[in-house]
Specification:
It contains 20 helices and no strands. The protein is mainly α.
Amino acid sequence: MKFNKPSLSFWQIFNMNVGFLGIQYSFGLQQTAINPIFLYLGAPEDMLPILNIAGPVTGLIVQPIIGAISDKTWSERWGRRKPFFLIGAILGSLCLFAFPTSPVLWFAVGLLWILDVGNNMAMEPYRAFVGDKLPEKQLSLGYQMQSLFVGAGILLANGSIVLFQYLFGGESVEVAGTIPTWLYYSFYIGAILSITTILYSVLKTPEIPPSSEELNAINTAKAKPLTERIALPFKEIAESIKKMPKFMWRVGAVYLFQWYALFIYWQYTTPLFKLTMGYSTGEAASQSAQMSLTYNIVTMVVALALVPLTLKFGGKKIYALSLFGTAISLFTIPYITDPILVLVPMVLFGIGWAAMMGIPYTMVSKVVPQERRGVYMGILNMMIVIPMGIETLTFGPIYKYLLGNNAINAMLFAGAFFAISGFLALRLNVTNKEKVSEL
């Protein structure tokens, strides 16, 4: 059932999204610092994809289940989505405190699994939270605001890595099997941000109570026997997939190539700079962090600027162009050996990242039913983590046997996949007829 939601001010939308900062700081560390830690602890390069399988698996399982459960949750005191923010943030903070002290590889891999559970538990309801609170005319601003905080969180994470490596890394000697102490500080900052930013948004933003129909459905679900209540989220997910708008299947095709390519980029920038610039692991990790720092600065700058552009030209065109730009950036990075000039392609990457983190969520939020927004945002995340899972299982052999254990070839491979995703994005048409027939 649809009802008119009050429009929120710019600062109200800002406050509700502050919690995304801590979540994305944690993801920023996963993108830039986790793989160097694996390398420090003795992991071979061709094993990096499979060691990162925690992200896809936990995302595939946790996000749709949490989405379905939160759709059927309501508390006068805690709300619908906010309890899951808090539990996920606490779990993530504890893992971030422990991560840099990992004594051996298997311990770090285990912590990554727990960290990903916490991050996914916090992030999925956040996507639904924006759709719950905002009227359709403000959805683009709401999701692009999240995109801004994606950039800000990852920016802070990578900025801290660059800073601490510069201040403390130059004097340290890399010892096999040991994580350098300068990496500890970034994780400690992330642990604090994870919980404090979530608390800020929780305390600043009340949730909209469910309608009488939604409340009846919630109470009916609570009255069911325990076994049925446990099975209910899985039934909700299966039923929602059967009734899913065709538009979401087209998004899934784009995501297949986009997220496969992104996972390659995050895993192989450190090995790339060891190869192209002759860096040590620590120096290459710092250069990788500077790349991420640059594109997330761009993301912060352009995220809100994309709102009027998507309104004028349509989300499909802006999204597709951004993916083509990201492809161009990955085609050029392997051939630039200057540590400053190699940051230039990150401008295109940053524009692409801003679009990826906002535009698809805006489009999907407009074509899914209000009462199932949580589960559909979870299903959208399944479309992210399935390609990432495929990458973790397949790219190691591809890297070793087809690409010659060469990180340059890996980056070009990722660029080609981004180009394919750009062409597929041109098929993302949303029509009123589709909305009505599919919902």
